[in-house]
Fold:
Amino acid sequence: MPVRPVWFALDLDGQIVGARGLCDHFDPRRYQVTHPNEDLVREGFAAFGRGDLDALQSQFFAEDIRWHFPGRSPFGGDFEGVAEVIGWLGRSFEASDGTIRLELHDVVANDEHAVALFTARAERAGKHLEDNTVQVAHIRGGKETEVWFYPADLYATDEFWS
Structure:
């Protein structure tokens, strides 16, 4: 009787499996590595959640960042430079009495851009904001250089911040 070779391998969890078992159990989604720009945006959202404006200024935003927030409220407009953007973020904390919270749902990123999907929640002067928002960031050199916001309900967002 001829001897048949036995094929085995270590799977990615270090378990010995036959060649067929290796293919049957491999799920490439388990071993994906996030893009560095995805990590940058996720860590930036975490810093905002902690109220760490110093980290945002020094680690996440370029000195010449451009920030675009739509609408006609006092928060709407185009803001240039890290000082203006940090001032804008500080005003959002103050105007909401510190209640502003961003629930990050997902981030998709490549070498130049990151898109974040989140829900913004805040309260101020008896008003309540809950809005799904898309943030698009242009990233260069490991920092955000330009950011655009697209609230799902611009009218409600304008009303809240006015």
